Amino acid sequence: MGTQTQTAQANQVLSADMLRRMDAYWRAANYLSVGQIYLMDNPLLREPLTADNVKPRLLGHWGTTPG
Fold first, then answer.
1. pLDDT at residue 34 in the model
2. Looking at the predicted structure, is the pLDDT value of residue 2 above 60?
3. What are the residues facing 39 on neighbouring strands?
């Protein structure tokens, strides 16, 4: 086994489509994380968000959130 590691090439540029897709993934992951941490009900916001939808005490695994 060698000790070499691969590194990203500095001259590679992401396409506009790849940037759009990465941004969409990031926003979706954040939305799901916030829903898991803060909401008890109505995660798809099919009804206006109310205080009853929010957890009174935050419990959960903070390591599930991106970033």
1. 83
2. no
3. 54
